Amino acid sequence: MSMSGPLPTWMEPFAVAASVGYGAAIRARGNRLERQLPMDCGLPVMSVGNITAGGTGKTPVTQWIVRTLQAGGHAPMIALRGHKGGETADEVLEHRTALPGIIVAVGADRARRIAATRVKNPSCDLVVLDDGFQHRQLRRDCDLVLIDATRPALDDGLLPLGWLREPASSLRRASGVIVTRALKVDDELADQILKLHGQAPLAWCRHAWTGLEGIDAGAVHEVAWLRRKRVAVWAGTGNPRAIVEQTESVAAAVVDVPRLMDHARWDAPKVARLLLRAQEAGAEAVIVTPKDWMKIAPLGVKSELPLVRPRLAIEFLQGESLVQEQLARAVRVGQSRCHR
After folding, report:
1. 3.40.1160.10, 3.30.70.660, 3.40.50.300, 3.40.50.150: which CATH number matches 32-202+319-338?
2. Which of 117, 209, 326, 333 is the most exposed place for a label (fewest CB within 10 A)?
3. Is the pLDDT of residue 86 over 90?
């Protein structure tokens, strides 16, 4: 298998060996978890996850699920590991900004964090696990897996040779599959998911930009504001190509895309350096992912170039009602289980 993963091609010999070792560890972990009963946190649990490294849209889909559950009269909490930053991790800050008042339980031991959070917030009646597919220690009533249409990676090798966090056959564990960042229903991808998962995808959706928010307080633009602008894209995500391609579809040109690590660290000198690079490339604005925005905005960096982040919304091309039905069914099953 040729190299297609996160490491440069010259590291392929190392990646092959590392992938074999990673695969052995994944199989051993899976066998161990199969022999263990998952922990019951005492609430219905909805999980959103993926089988690939990098962004598949878990954060906006998680927020859509939370809003859907809230509209049904529920008071969900979000539980997530919190990548390195704990309470200040970018995903945590994104959720709290997008969902004012949301309760977030942060920590690697999610069952423990959920229990502690329930004590302080007894009104919470549901849990939404963000990035929960591999967290098999916790019992869940709905296990949704996201596949990114721009990089499905279902034929890839395991990390770091390919992008897979676990074999694609693991999709059999999922309750349902949602295809994200889709421009249309892709029959070939649907057939591939059907063979691996046993069912066709529940839904197809896309990340819609509903507006652009500037780093200066109150600066909001229509997406059409980009139409005649040359822009730089700052994307500290696992799949920057997705936001670059979306930017290309609405801007005059993308002239600079610095290479950034997933969950990139930011400080004022780094921002200043990349702003100078963008200006030298002829950029007239900078698109920043919501995840990176959470770290850049507090720095208070002044810029001649407008820094803007897209406001995201999940729009379904197909299957929205099926996802809603699966969530409602999982809530009923979970409530029945917890009230026994």
Report:
1. 3.40.50.300
2. 333
3. no
